[in-house]
Amino acid sequence: MRRPTPLIVIGLAAIAAAVVLGAIVPEQYELAVLIPCGLLSLAFAWGLGKLGPAWLVLPAFMVVIPGTAVLVSDGHRALMDVLATPQTCVINSVEDLPGPDNPAFAHHITCPDGAELRIVVLGEQDKRMQPGPATVLRHPVMRPLLADRNDWSDEWVFGVPIAIFLLLMCATTLRARRVMRQA
């Protein structure tokens, strides 16, 4: 493949798909989203290496691989901050979920419309909420989140697109310089 544009577009579409699908699928299937989207996002690095000098592939890998992994969960939280509707619900009970690494807490919630929700929050004891009223972020398509525990990394959510834009600028500038030298 001689043209880098389809590779770059495929890689960027995979990163965007990781954000959207990460918000829709249940938490236990996030790995099923991460693996194909992570592999397809490598097309961006490959296309960038074809567009500009080959050494740009390394910084592109350094942005794309961890960026896609983080955006599967942080992208969901950021989307919920923007698109979701806050609703006051009641936490009925909280159960500790056994796990090998991180503790997790399942919050059993009842909303005024009668919806019974189970929201799992990963983290230490400070992430556990007490039974009582709580604000829940709800969207018709995406998984609900507790508003008080919706902590996402703005450095990653904004940093990955900025880094991708800067890499594209570098690649196109260096390619234009090479073309001008050949003319």
Question: Could you please describe the fold and organization of this structure?
Answer:
It is elongated and about 70 Å long. The chain has four helices and five strands. The two termini are 24 Å apart. Helix 1 packs parallel to helix 3, helix 2 (30-51) packs across helix 3 (57-83) and helix 3 packs across helix 4. It has 183 residues and is an alpha+beta fold. The chain has a five-stranded antiparallel sheet.
Give a brief outline of the structure.
The protein is α+β, with helices and mostly antiparallel strands and 183 residues long. It has four helices and five strands, in the order H-H-H-E-E-E-E-E-H. Strands 3-2-1-4-5 form a five-stranded antiparallel sheet.
